[in-house]
Specification:
With 101 residues, the chain is an alpha+beta fold. It is built from two helices and five strands; from the N terminus they run E-H-E-E-H-E-E.
């Protein structure tokens, strides 16, 4: 059976899938190397990561480190979430996603 439960804490990033996005992905991996991956997908347009983080404090610390990349035009989306506690607001550091109408 599939486990459909979301991780308690996660960091989500969308990166443009091109040569420069791959460089960004490598730079971000130095910060996220010890985290588990809950979800990963890649297509010709973007790379999507959902990293599992053990605690909210670690999520804040790692999110703060990843926040340094928000000026990179190859980063589309960066958000930290506490899925187990509705009193904690999600923090979106960058959101340049485009949705079809």
């Amino acid at each position: 059976m599939f486990d459909l439960k979301l991780p308690d804490f996660e960091i989500i990033a969308w990166i443009i899938n091109n040569e420069f996005g791959k460089k960004l992905e490598n730079e971000m991996s130095t910060i996220t190397k010890d985290l588990g991956i809950d979800d990963y997908s890649e297509n010709q347009d973007k790379i999507v990561y959902h990293w599992i983080v053990p605690s909210w404090l670690e999520t804040l610390v790692l999110g703060g480190k990843l926040k340094e990349f928000v000026g990179n035009p190859n980063l589309i989306f960066l958000k930290i979430k506490a899925n187990n506690d509705s009193s904690i607001e999600d923090i979106a550091f960058k959101d340049e996603r485009e949705f079809k109408k």
